[in-house]
């Protein structure tokens, strides 16, 4: 048994894959703990994992730009967070550390860790690498303006780790033109349903012929888009469809008044697996988790990318796969309605989405990520309770 510490980030789609991998590691007999920002704590309460709050997440907020993104930059990059991460690692004394690749302060501190560590990437790494190189450079500039030392470049922070575990499909992640880093492993999506999400009883029943459309935008409060949700509801209200809109934690369903057309059900959260299993279309911001789920179930998408660096790239990927279309978030409800009607009416989109779904056959990203962790542990003489020789002897094969 090994003691494994996740240095996590509570961003909307960042935490679920880590939880899924942690469950796999626990089932294999390992002891798992999480450390992360204060916003992560409520999401950890329903789980069985011990969670350590980084209370210094905003200790240096006054040095960062004002506004909601200043909190984001401070939490993920500040020296105070680096110092507390180091203290947590020393107190926990884990055998291995898994670091969210967006948690730049933890990656920057990792060179000082005694235990070995791996980075976790929850999106198609090679497709988004340039965007995150730019984001890291911007964060470094913000740190310097705050009077702190600059950050290393993105590639140094990420690829200097012992392993880089990518919970996305290697088959749709373009390899770089230069030499591929040898420590990168694509394990496939790790799609986790968080504990607060429950199955939804649809008012139209389960076996109706009317197409079902799922509307799901970001759960991150920084990307809350009530106006976009309303325009999407207005658009789909014009069509002969049934609509479920899950608005997430970023929007307070009790404070935000949505005018829901008669064919629409608006809820805070619902089990997306069950909904996508019967959906004909997903309207989304293009977060990696939502995109992967839709592709897994062979459901075409309309992607309306938000501000996160990967969302426009994910939308372009959907169009490249001919599994949907992209619209800007300021698109009118009339245009959204017209495109939704066109995608639903054209069988090529659902056919292409179903073809991509075949890539998910026998892919369990969480299990494969756990196997990768155990392979890295084995290098340091720490073996699983039931080690798999095929994994321990593997010489660099890339998963799905």
CATH fold naming of the largest domain: Rossmann fold
End-to-end Cα distance? 27 Å
Shape: globular
The CATH fourth-level homologous superfamily of the largest domain = Glycogen Phosphorylase B
Separate helix tally: 15
The share of residues in helices is: 25-40%
- CATH class of the largest domain equals Alpha Beta
Mean pLDDT: 89
Q: Quick summary of this structure?
A:
The protein is built from 15 helices and 13 strands. The chain has 400 residues and is α/β, with parallel strands linked by helices.
What attributes does this structure have?
38% helix; 15 helices; 2 domains; disordered C terminus; six-stranded parallel β-sheet; Rossmann fold; seven-stranded parallel β-sheet; globular; single chain; 400 residues; 13 strands; alpha/beta
């Amino acid at each position: 048994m090994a003691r494994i510490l996740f240095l996590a980030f509570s961003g909307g789609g960042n935490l679920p894959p880590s939880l899924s991998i942690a469950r796999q590691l626990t089932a294999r007999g390992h002891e798992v703990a999480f450390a992360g920002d204060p916003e992560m704590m409520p999401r950890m309460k329903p789980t069985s994992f011990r969670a350590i709050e980084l209370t210094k997440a905003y200790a240096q907020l006054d040095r960062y730009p004002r506004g909601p993104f200043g909190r984001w930059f401070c939490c993920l990059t500040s020296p105070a967070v680096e110092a507390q991460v180091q203290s947590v690692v020393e107190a926990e004394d884990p055998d291995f550390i898994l670091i969210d690749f967006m948690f730049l302060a933890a990656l920057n501190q990792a060179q000082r860790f005694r235990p070995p560590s791996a980075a976790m990437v929850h999106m198609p790494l090679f497709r988004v690498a340039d965007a995150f190189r730019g984001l890291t450079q911007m964060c470094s500039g913000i740190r310097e303006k705050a009077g702190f030392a600059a950050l290393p470049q993105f590639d140094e922070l990420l690829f200097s780790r012992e392993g880089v575990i990518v919970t996305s499909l290697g088959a749709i992640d373009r390899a770089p033109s230069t030499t591929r880093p040898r420590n990168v492993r694509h394990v496939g999506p790790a799609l986790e349903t968080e504990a607060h999400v429950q199955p939804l009883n649809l008012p139209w029943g389960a076996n109706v012929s009317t197409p079902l459309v799922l509307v799901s935008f970001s759960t991150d409060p920084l990307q809350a888009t009530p106006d976009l949700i309303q325009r999407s509801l207005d658009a789909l209200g014009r069509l002969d469809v049934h609509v479920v809109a899950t608005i997430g934690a970023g929007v307070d369903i009790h404070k935000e008044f949505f005018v829901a057309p008669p064919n629409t059900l608006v809820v805070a959260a619902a089990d997306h697996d069950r909904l996508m299993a019967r959906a004909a279309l997903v309207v989304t911001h293009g977060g990696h988790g939502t995109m992967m789920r839709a592709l897994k179930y062979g459901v075409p998408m309309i992607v309306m990318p938000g501000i996160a660096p990967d969302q426009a790239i994910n939308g372009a990927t959907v169009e490249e796969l001919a599994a949907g279309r992209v619209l800007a978030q300021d698109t009118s409800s009339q245009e959204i309605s017209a495109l939704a009607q066109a995608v639903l009416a054209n069988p090529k989109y659902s056919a292409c989405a179903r073809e991509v779904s075949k890539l998910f056959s026998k892919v369990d990203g969480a299990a494969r990520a756990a196997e990768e962790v155990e392979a890295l542990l084995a290098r340091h003489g720490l073996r699983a309770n039931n080690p798999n020789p095929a994994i321990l002897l593997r010489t660099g094969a890339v998963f799905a």
